[in-house]
Write a structure and sequence with these properties.
Blueprint lengths: L14 H9 L7 H11 L4 E4 L6 H13 L11 E4 L3 H18 L3 E4 L5 H10 L3 E4 L1 H9 L10 E5 L1 H6 L3 H8 L7 E5 L7 H8 L4 E4 L10 E7 L5 H9 L5 E4 L3 H14 L3 E4 L5 H13 L4 E4 L1 H4 L9 E4 L6 H8 L9 E7 L4 H11 L4 E4 L5 H7 L52
Parallel strand pairs: 1-6, 1-7, 2-4, 2-5, 3-4, 5-6, 8-13, 8-14, 9-11, 9-12, 10-11, 12-13
Length: 436
């Protein structure tokens, strides 16, 4: 492993990038950035293992942009590619890299399922040096003749383990076969199971491996609680937790349960909305924006929809339905305590779930604080900030997006990228209001 670097200025990054980092208030590299930048800037293949929220977007994004600077893409022939599993993560990566790409005069396009295929095709044909894509939509555009990957010199696979979980590895393999064979590849993944190790062996050449956290690690700033509740108390306890101050994500096992809980919370006076794969991409974009701005304070989500959600200052995640796998627990928890902030993960456990949850925590390497709670217990409010909701039903009005001018970057979201969406939550002209 090579030496890590103390500052961005010492890396050899393009000066415009260092200046933009300073302008964004980022003065010191996070550990995964300090560890990987010397190798990635030198053009070496990198295998990064880091917990979600550890700063890996800039760990791969800065060298990708720095090494692409000064080059211009021909129409439909990008020079750098970032593959991600979900629409939301594509949106997040594009948003994170946008100011740095702009500082270098590089054009980005986001290629995902959910919105206009034609708009994304136009963005590619206009020339985009950097493409952030989900595998399915990128395949669609290649099949239409709108994109060719032969000039892609830098390829990044972000959250490769999630792509494996969602069944995208055959598509990813076909895409990697099309990029420049002598190009640089960077792969970031929390784990190397599910076929990710085969991708590494086939497509990465003598990769330098950097692991800032073990695959099951969690930050010290994250506190884990298991609340043992009886079935009769759970609905009311859950409503009180959702009514806490601040923003909260509540995880459910299915989209139907998520919808039902959101309706129940709204009827009790909690500003709630459901987020899952059954929502259209414009709906999902609006709901996330409402959550970021505080119009929605309780986001009821499923695992798939919540990958890639990044909301600053989110301090609590609640597992209403405990996950079945340790890595799902870690990914859920990764929505909070990001980049050094503190956060709390609370899991509600019924008596019949105790054994399975205990086993899951052991596999995840988590030693939670366990508490038996009943309605009205001080422990419930002490751990979660639970409080009685107003009881006055609320309706959350969702403004429809205006037709809008064509954005600079195409794209935005969809599991597997079978659709597309715009890459910003810019101001929108309200149309006829409707309830989320």
């Amino acid at each position: 492993m090579t030496m890590t670097i103390p500052s961005f200025a010492a890396t050899g990054l393009e000066p415009a990038l260092v200046a933009e980092l300073t302008a964004q208030g980022i003065n010191e590299p996070f550990p995964i950035q300090a560890a990987t930048l010397p190798d990635s800037l030198a053009g070496r293949d990198v295998l990064g293992r880091g917990r979600t929220g550890s700063g890996k977007t800039l760990a791969f994004g800065l060298p990708l942009l720095s090494r692409t600077a000064g080059r211009r893409a021909r129409p439909g022939r990008p020079l750098a590619l970032v593959l991600v599993p979900t629409r939301e993560l594509a949106q997040q990566v594009t948003t994170a890299l946008a100011p740095y790409a702009k500082a270098l005069g590089l054009r980005c396009a986001t290629v995902v399922g959910g919105l206009s295929l034609q708009r994304q095709a136009d963005a590619l044909r206009a020339g985009a040096e950097v493409v952030v894509a989900t595998p399915g939509r990128l395949h669609d555009l290649i099949n239409r003749g709108d994109a060719r990957l032969g000039e892609v010199a830098i390829t990044v696979l972000d959250e490769a383990d999630q792509m494996a979980d969602m069944g995208f590895l055959p598509q990813v393999t076909k895409l990697l076969e099309q990029v420049a064979p002598d190009g640089q590849r960077m792969l970031f993944s929390a784990t190397l199971d599910g076929g990710v190790d085969r991708l590494v062996r086939r497509f990465l050449s003598n990769p330098v491996s950097h692991s800032v956290d073990p695959g099951t690690a969690t930050v010290t700033a994250m506190t884990h609680h298991v609340l043992h509740v009886d079935a009769a108390d759970k609905p009311a306890a859950l409503t009180q937790i959702a009514a806490r101050e601040g923003r909260t994500i509540l995880f459910m096992g299915t989209k139907h349960r998520a919808d039902r809980l959101a309706r129940q919370l709204l009827s009790k006076g909690v500003r709630a909305a459901a987020l899952h794969g059954g929502k259209s991409q414009p709906q999902r974009t609006r709901i996330l924006e409402q959550f970021r701005t505080g119009q929605v304070t309780a986001l009821v989500a499923t695992d798939v929809a919540a990958r890639g959600i990044h909301v600053d200052g989110l301090d609590m995640v609640v597992n209403v339905d405990p996950p079945t796998e340790a890595k799902d627990y870690l990914h859920r928890g990764g929505r909070t305590a990001r980049a050094g902030e503190s956060g709390t993960v609370v899991t509600l456990v019924l008596p019949e779930q105790r054994r399975d949850v205990s086993r899951l925590m052991s596999v995840a390497g988590i030693k939670p604080q366990s508490t038996q709670v009943r309605l009205g217990d001080a422990a419930l409010s002490r751990v979660t900030g639970a409080r009685e909701p107003s009881g006055v039903p609320v309706t959350i009005v969702a403004p429809q997006p205006a037709p809008a001018a064509r954005p600079r970057t195409a794209g935005g979201g969809g599991e597997g990228g079978r659709s597309a969406h715009r890459t910003s939550g810019r101001s929108r002209r309200p149309r006829r209001p409707r309830t989320v």
